[in-house]
Amino acid sequence: MSIIQQHTAATLSDAWRTINIDALDPDSSQNFDTSTLHPPLLEVGEADVRQLNAQVRQLLRGGDAEGALRGSLESPVYNGSDAAKDQHLQTVLEVLQSIKASDMTPMLLRIYGSPGGSELLDVLMKYLYKGMSGGAGAGGRTPTRNLTPQPTGFSQVGSRPGIPSESTGTAMSVLLSWHEKVVDVTGLGSIERCMTDWRKV
After folding, report:
1. For labelling, which of 28, 41, 81, 125 has a CA lying 20 to 30 Å from the CA of 90?
2. pLDDT tens-digit profile of 147-200?
3. Three-state DSSP class for 123?
4. What is the residue-wise DSSP string for 157-197?
5. Which residues face 157 on adjacent strands?
6. CB of 41 within 8 A of CB of 79?
């Protein structure tokens, strides 16, 4: 064996790959609880969500669509059961579907121009994406029971839970229309804030 082969075998072992560098770094996330970086969120129960949804629907029946939209967005369900989150999602979608297309932009501009309006539209963007994903409980993933295989290799999302007679195309069209209007008002920053926010609806 030549000197070069001996040197290579001695120094190029894979032992360095087994060292956990993060465990040696005092500033590493392994050395402290990362949950302490976020403020605690109040847990919202299903009874609270039902009460809020009843108030929102009452505003909607009274003809105050903007008030209903604000009310549903001011109290997003960040920390609650999957059922509570899905109930609130359904209420938000009902409000969105009840608003005429010609009223979307003026309403969004009024909300955006009000104090805290930017945050409300960011919450709206979260609900739009959750609605587009099928509104599944765990992490917003699309439930596989609503998927049907297509010849193209893509899957087709079925109708939203709780609304069996509604066509998927109509529901998706409403969500995409709202998405377009929100981006027109807030810019692309709303999408980025929605994707990077640790609070999920």
Report:
1. 41
2. 455 555 444 444 444 554 456 678 889 999 999 999 999 999 999 999 999 899
3. helix
4. E-PPTT-TTS-HHHHHHHHHHHHHHHHHHH-THHHHHHHH-
5. 147
6. yes
Mean pLDDT across the chain: 80
pTM score, whole prediction: 0.69
DSSP-derived secondary structure letter, 44: B
Separation of alpha carbons 129 and 139, rounded Å: 12
User: 147: closest CA among 135, 137, 134?
Assistant: 134
DSSP 142: P
Instruction: Tell me: pLDDT of 144 over 60.
Output: no
Which residues make Cβ contacts (< 8 Å) with residue 30, sequence separation at least 6?
22, 23
The Cα–Cα gap between 85 and 41 comes to: 14
Task: Name every residue whose Cβ is closer than 8 Å to that of residue 133 and which is 6 or more positions away in sequence.
Answer: 140, 141, 142, 157
pLDDT at 141 over 50: no
Cα dihedral across residues 135, 139, 144, 149: positive or negative:
positive
